[in-house]
Amino acid sequence: MSIPPRVSRALPARLIAATGAALVAAALAGQAAAQSPDPYAPGTRWTALPGVTALWMPVSVRFGAGGELVFVGAGLSTPQWLVYGSTLPPASQGVAQAATGLLAAPSTLSNLTVSCGDGARELFGLAQIPDPDSSHRRTEISRFDPLAPGGLAALWTHDMGWRANGPAKFAVARDGGRAVAVLQDSATQQLRIDWLDGATGALLGRVDRAGGTLRPLAVDEDCDVVACVAGLELWVFDAGGALRHQEVLASATQALALSGDGSTLIVGAPGLLRVLQWTGAAYLERMREQAPAGELPVRVAASHDGSAWAAAWWNATTGRDVRLELRSAPGDLQVFERRQFGSSSGPQNFPEVVLVARDGSRAAFGLWGCQDAQPEVLLVELAGGGSVAELDLPGSVTALDLDPSGTRLAIGMKHGHANQFATTGEVRLFDTGERALQALGPALAGAPLPVTARRSGAGSVWFLYGPRAAPSVLPGIGGVLELRRRGLRALAVPADASGRADGWLPMPSSPPPTGVPYAVQALFRSAAGSVLSATVLEPLARNLRS
User: Fold this and answer.
1) Phi and psi of 480, rounded to 5°?
2) Any idea what the Cα angle at residue 309 is, between residues 306 and 315, rounded to 5°?
3) Could you read off the pLDDT of 434-446 as tens digits, one per residue?
4) Which residues contact 384 (CB under 8 A, 6 or more apart)?
5) What does pTM read for this prediction?
6) CATH number of the domain at 11-38+437-537, out of 2.60.40, 3.30.70, 2.40.50, 3.40.190?
7) What's the confidence (pLDDT) of residue 3?
8) If you count Cβ atoms within 10 Å of the first and of the last residue's Cβ in the chain, which end, N or C, has fewer?
């Protein structure tokens, strides 16, 4: 049913006027959807494995399309780009099974790295390909369309020009409008930095300069500030390629991070982490952390404003001990710390990935592990400094990403320890089960979308769906409406004793060019009043035949 453009206090009454037939259909749909794994319980939602004839191991993973997609760069004998939907498999499958890739593009690429903007068609990859021989590589950055009718299609490809046998790294702006890539030629000890237009791949700027071995790359969320360590030098550039900061380090480091707004720069050294603050003219030290002898900071990450940051320390003396921490304002105080100690006969432990949510509310850590009961993946909350999830994996973490809601982890894992021989790996989607509104299956054009919502005390739930819009406040209703009022539609469903309601929402017969047909938000109705869900879904529809 349509809701008048100007929604008032009468909104719940108008929504509850949905027909009895719709309520019955929704209740039956809820019974079918409930057969799937409990979406409100923490657990692995799906696992993606290589086929028997396609051996691959995930080396890079990122959430795309606001968390609707998982983009994977997979290496080894059959390197390829892989795209998965982040929702549960269809409820008709009964249990969470291996996720089906939306699209896969096998190739002969090597050294694949992925990154994503917020949009559905803002998937980017960096590949280094042997050319003209095994001692030289061609470095290409591409933008992909995961919704192309013929399969995963490259919208453009940029060749960095050099045929060099050296490392390369890249990053993409949050809005997908810009990308930056850094390549090192180990033979000539030269460094190349390219700034690219995200829409067209056009070269916006280039800097070539002498530089040693390329180590970490860090950028702000707009790619306006770019920091990298090459050899013993730290450089920070602005979007025009002008040098903003430069210093010679006492030793090379893999610990480098920039906050999303570019205001905070974190740099590591043996037994030391320095936090630098941009004053408008220079980066000045605001804090330093001294660590015991033998401890090296190897991974760091920061929130958008730099007020929260996380670090992983590795004990180079033992090779098996690690220390994980999360710090926050005021004063960069430590709010979480975890130490892991490995036995002298066990394998090497090492922190592979550290992540911090954009708002600083959570941090995630991915480790090689010690092949014991200690977790390889930890999700930690800033409020209270406790862990939300701790996952003991049967192999080492090779890649990790945290979705925008901070409730889902895309985990790339090797089938075996990092120091042991293995030719395959897998990708897992872990969900904490905290989101009040969730999709129970993939969005298919022309097919109903199964959804669920739950809030304690709710007597009924209205699934609102329509175009996304700027947030607005409705009189007498808690929360914020993030859908456009004009053309807004709703499905009313009675809730069970736990406050949960399941339903099926109609999807357009064919997705529009944006790939996101509409957004979904839940309105919870109880004796205490009406409240809108903080979670908003933007289901990414694809054609049934794609």
Assistant:
1) -125, 130
2) 145
3) 999 999 987 877 7
4) none
5) 0.90
6) 2.60.40
7) 35
8) N
